[in-house]
């Protein structure tokens, strides 16, 4: 089931979602038969899932939603619509560290800041979240074992997050979290505390297709969480992903940047955190409007 707990808000910065993530403990190549060993489950609960409505084009629900949310195009790709913001299409690689709980929220913050200010100078640091947020990671002694995305949005709102130039992501080859630095890396000026940028607010978008689409068109990419199965982790990018077989792995978060239809099948266009070697350069089409994730 796709959990459309999504994050967002406008002004200068925005965002908010729920639940957490995939737990990638190794470098797992696409199609690796041992990929099941690359994932572990968190000790804490995953929370409840909410199903979102599927609207047919002629239904009463669709017409009411259209009136409420405004015009929604049949296809949309935020990479084209906001071409001045290269971060929208950037594909992060969490590597050995289970850090999508930090990578996806900071990516959405970065995208929306660029869209709101027409400037790509601010790239929010996932390293800051992993190393410096006391409430974001599930285990403070091992911050590369997953976290709670909603805590990331609260941290951004209350404490602030530095630019990637100050604290670049450096967990690609380590499975162990690092302590929060006092100063930025060599070559970047100032202290971590002195480089914080706060978000104004964050909020959740209700879980229905047209409202999510409207939110993306108006304000930019959003974050969503869903139940991840093995066939998603090994998806080769051919066609539209729909869960068909394989064991349940964990909760996972991705960035939604658009939607469309392929051979009559509606899909979300998502950016994952597995690097460019996954699916189609790190981007995939994910079945939209059906509850196909059961376990």
Automatic annotation (TrEMBL):
It comes from the Eukaryota. Residues 72-293 form the Peptidase C1A papain C-terminal domain. Pfam families: Peptidase_C1. Belongs to the peptidase C1 family. This is Peptidase C1A papain C-terminal domain-containing protein.
